[in-house]
Backbone:
């Protein structure tokens, strides 16, 4: 498909820009570029067709099931969009005097209050732009806590299990902490003996997601957080898997001190394609003063508390995402929040049960909101891999699950159907998964070349990673 | 699976060879096959010091980033910079594509070829 730059023809335009009605300001000539910027020149029709063509090639949760494990690709209710489109929310400026945006501030306060209630935290910030940014912010709070106690130098290690999301060790490293990876038990849960051996006076904290990446709720969770606290460390909850438990149990009650939430996962705001996301960060009372919350009286974004880590993003974060998340929480209500988690777990277990005769499960028995299958045996015996299955699902017109994660399961396929799929959708999905499995085992050689009907076939991932082409270059 | 008899192995799938008083470290044929196509190798600096069991470098495949653990407590004296531009060498010739040469002493348990092969089968 041609890029806009390649479709460009000199002189073509769409004449939308109005005549300039302000005095022309002349810059010093040394600041001006010598040639015009190479913007593509296209008619409105060209542009419109280009984006329609892109839209036809894409696949989202509006097109069908999107069972991407650990990503919670749930349906985004239209009422969220209606609320976010209200002119009182859209026609404002982040530097407006606070007297004039009281309604918007109330939206943020209400959302923070509800998120605190759901997670068992005491304070919340909506600044971080997405999940990893939230993790980074949360771990900064923990680091600040140790620094202000005079232990910043000593407590420089963060413990993560080897089943963790890759962002956890990355967050620790970005915060200047040394990452200590501890082995997990078979079911992905924390090995208590390994944890006890890893903690000490250098422990800054633990980063954990519960349910874990194998979709299992760690039954030792209060023991785990106790071990960390007794060693003087703090516990960070990666909220990526909160969809399994929201409204049922609270990370704050499990013993966690700090948490991030992916509003674009759990709270049904758009996810993927740049979202934008939002990674709200919550904490217990004793960490509250370190939050990146501005305490300005009139104009926002100018004043932070003495112990605050300072702002991590401009203004109030992705405000309209917060509006959508509040619309979601308020339309579900207390019972609805709990029911949505319960349905997410029920749906995952139903899909798992439908597939258990075909795919080998990394963990037999009940799961939480997601489950992991493994193609290890098939790959060894026939060459058919998790990647082949994923590509085969594209040919069948659905989005594949997460593959090759968690790392502790070989040839992993990790599926999370979410609560917004109907029974019929789950059954249809199971049929497709089974059909692709049978086709792959019948002819593994052919499976290596899937997909055959998608607009893009099997990309050369190795060359893409070794010699990435990241931008378009003009021939001139 | 190729497991040269003259090498020693770790349970984490590295191989070690003693050569001119130095320990040469790489990853095994089993490891490169399990990782898939290697697209990036991250090497330490010369003179970096490590304890046995530490991650001495990491490799990135199309599937994941994995640590390479050193069984040697000591200092890096040589790194294989050829791998930076040609990480595919690890897939093509895992026992030729060494990562680092270290001086020091072996402080981790090592397996001989037969024991390593058994370990891989049980895994």
Residues:
């Amino acid at each position: 498909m041609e890029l806009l730059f390649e479709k460009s023809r000199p002189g073509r335009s769409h004449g939308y820009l109005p005549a300039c009605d302000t005095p022309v300001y002349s810059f010093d000539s040394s600041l001006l570029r010598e040639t015009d910027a190479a913007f593509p020149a296209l008619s409105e029709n060209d542009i419109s067709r280009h984006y329609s063509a892109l839209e036809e090639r894409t696949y989202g949760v509006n097109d069908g099931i999107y069972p991407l494990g650990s990503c919670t690709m749930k349906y985004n209710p239209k009422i969220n969009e209606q609320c976010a489109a209200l002119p009182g929310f859209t026609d404002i400026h982040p530097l407006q005097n606070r007297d004039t945006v009281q309604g918007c501030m109330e939206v943020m306060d209400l959302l923070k209050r509800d998120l605190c209630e759901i997670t068992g935290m005491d304070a919340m910030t909506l600044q971080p732009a997405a999940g990893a940014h939230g993790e980074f912010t949360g771990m900064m709070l923990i680091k600040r806590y140790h620094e202000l106690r005079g232990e910043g130098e000593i407590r420089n290690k963060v413990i993560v299990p080897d089943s963790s999301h890759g962002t956890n060790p990355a967050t620790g490293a970005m915060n200047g902490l040394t990452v200590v990876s501890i082995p997990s038990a078979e079911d992905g849960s924390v090995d208590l003996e390994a944890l006890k051996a890893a903690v000490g006076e250098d422990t800054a904290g633990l980063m954990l997601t519960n349910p874990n990446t194998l979709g299992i709720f760690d039954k030792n969770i209060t023991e785990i957080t106790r071990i960390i606290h007794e060693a003087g460390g703090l516990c960070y909850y990666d909220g990526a898997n909160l969809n399994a438990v929201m409204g049922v149990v609270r990370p704050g009650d499990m013993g966690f001190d700090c948490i991030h939430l992916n509003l674009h996962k759990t709270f049904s705001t758009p996810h993927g394609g740049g979202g934008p996301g939002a990674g709200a960060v919550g904490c217990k009372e004793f960490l509250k003063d370190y939050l990146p919350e501005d305490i300005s009286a009139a104009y926002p974004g100018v004043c932070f508390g003495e112990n605050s880590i300072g702002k991590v993003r401009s203004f109030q974060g992705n405000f309209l995402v917060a509006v959508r998340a509040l619309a979601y929480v308020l339309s579900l209500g207390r019972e609805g929040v709990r029911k949505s988690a319960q349905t997410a777990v029920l749906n995952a277990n139903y899909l798992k049960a439908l597939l258990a005769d075909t795919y080998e499960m990394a963990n037999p028995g009940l799961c939480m909101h997601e489950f992991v299958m493994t193609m290890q045996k098939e790959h060894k015996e026939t060459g058919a891999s998790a990647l082949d299955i994923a590509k085969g699902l594209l040919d069948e017109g659905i989005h594949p699950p997460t593959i090759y994660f968690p790392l502790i399961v070989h040839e992993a396929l990790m599926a999370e159907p979410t609560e917004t799929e109907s029974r019929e959708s789950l059954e249809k999905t199971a049929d497709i998964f089974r059909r692709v499995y049978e086709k792959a085992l019948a002819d593994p050689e052919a499976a290596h070349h899937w997909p055959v009907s998608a607009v893009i076939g099997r990309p050369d991932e190795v060359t893409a990673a070794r010699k990435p082409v990241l931008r378009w270059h003009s021939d001139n | 699976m190729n497991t040269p008899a003259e090498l020693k192995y770790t349970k984490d799938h590295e191989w070690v060879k003693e050569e001119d008083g130095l320990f040469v470290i790489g990853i095994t044929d089993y490891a490169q096959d399990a990782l898939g196509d290697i697209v990036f190798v991250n090497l330490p600096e010369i003179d970096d010091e490590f304890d046995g069991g530490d991650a001495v470098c990491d490799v990135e495949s199309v599937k994941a980033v994995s640590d390479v653990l050193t069984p040697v407590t000591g200092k890096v004296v040589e790194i294989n910079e050829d791998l930076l531009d040609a990480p595919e060498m690890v897939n093509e010739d895992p026992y030729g594509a060494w990562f680092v040469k270290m001086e020091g002493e072996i402080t981790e348990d090592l397996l001989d070829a037969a024991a390593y092969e058994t370990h891989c089968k049980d895994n």
